[in-house]
Write a structure and sequence with these properties.
By secondary structure, the protein is mainly α. It has a domain of 87 residues. Helix content is 37%, strand content 3%. It is built from five helices and two strands. The longest helix has 22 residues.
């Protein structure tokens, strides 16, 4: 995967100035530095560079809190840098995407009147009712349109 010529020094300098155990505010600061550079490159190239911006994008888990920063930190840990991520239990580590939240809302919830999906699957199939085919509708006459292209005289 080809990456952009990204500013690898800015997040590294910031990371080196931080304690070895990174808290939420440290991770947010690294994310902000990476986002700023990624945004500038995205604007210049006129496309979203998420996933192809830098070498650490290959190992990115987009559902994590500050995904770019955490992926960058994991890359630096793999290179031998002694740093740890310490996000408290009461702070969210993952952020659900809007699509995941909508899918959860749309899933049916079993009520007393409505059996759960497992119960429905366990029941024997009901008698098959023969399908009634609708009467064919008469097709309207097709009209064809001819499109001409004007050519410029030389």
């Amino acid at each position: 995967m080809k990456t952009v010529d990204w500013n690898s020094q800015a997040p590294l300098k910031l990371l080196q100035s931080m304690p070895t155990t990174l808290k939420k505010k440290n991770i947010e600061a690294i994310q902000e530095v990476i986002d700023r550079d990624k945004f500038q490159h995205s604007k210049r190239l006129q496309r979203d560079l998420c996933g192809v911006y830098a070498p650490f994008c290959e190992g990115c888990i987009k559902t994590l809190y500050c995904p770019c920063a955490q992926s960058y930190i994991r890359m630096k840990q793999a290179e031998g840098m002694k740093i740890e991520i310490a996000i408290a239990d009461d702070e969210p580590e993952t952020v659900k995407s809007e699509a995941a939240e909508e899918a959860e809302e749309k899933q049916p919830v079993a009520t007393d009147e409505q059996p759960a999906a497992e119960e429905v699957a366990a029941q024997p199939p009901a008698e098959e009712v023969p399908a009634v085919e609708p009467e064919p509708q008469p097709q309207p006459e097709k009209k064809y349109i001819r499109i001409a292209i004007a050519r410029k005289k030389r």
